[in-house]
Amino acid sequence: MIYSIAGTNKEVREKAYESLAKLGSVSSHIYSENIATLEPLIESASLFGDKIIANLIQVMDLASARDVVIALLPEMKSSQNIFIIDEPFADANRIKRLAKVSEKLFDAMEEKVKGNDVFQLCNLVAKRDKKQAWIKWIYIRDRETPEAIHGALWWKWTTLWSDVKSGKPSRFTLKECEEIGGKLLRASILAHRGERDLKIELEKVVLSI
Predict the structure, then answer these.
(1) Phi and psi for 29 in degrees, rounded to 5?
(2) pLDDT at residue 114 greater than cutoff 50
(3) What span, in angstroms and rounded, lies between the C-alpha atoms of 128 and 170?
(4) Which of 74, 144, 147, 172 has the most CB within a 10 Å radius?
């Protein structure tokens, strides 16, 4: 059985988790780095006969983890256990795929950010214009949600990373793409766990280019 949350709207996400809490306590949190623990949970049963509830957090942002989830969606859907798939930065294709297999999909998609400030920041980071990126960051950091900024930066960075892998010219090396990409991915995971402040982590990324 699958329930999905797509998007970054804070109010919708809070209501979604309040509703899902009625199903029981989450027994397992799954991130992209421990995606191998997903498949065994599909047929697992707790020692006390309760349903296992697994929360998959932003696992589909990483291609290797996304492939695992997509392959297991039919089994997760028919499982007696419950799988909550939380994809803050899902695109239209991902939402469509999740909608087909979910008992309920909570739509927390935000309207596109007014103006181009967030996307200008992304472009400045990609151009490695540290001075202008910092100026733009100072301007938007308290005007937009960290989740929305992170989503746009992650999308831009994965695009740049892919271009570098394919040999296109860039101001970043492949190693730098991997390092900064890792920082962005870990920032979201650690913020979700309550171990880091996402805004601070994003500021570190902007300063590191």
Answers:
(1) -105, 130
(2) no
(3) 9
(4) 147
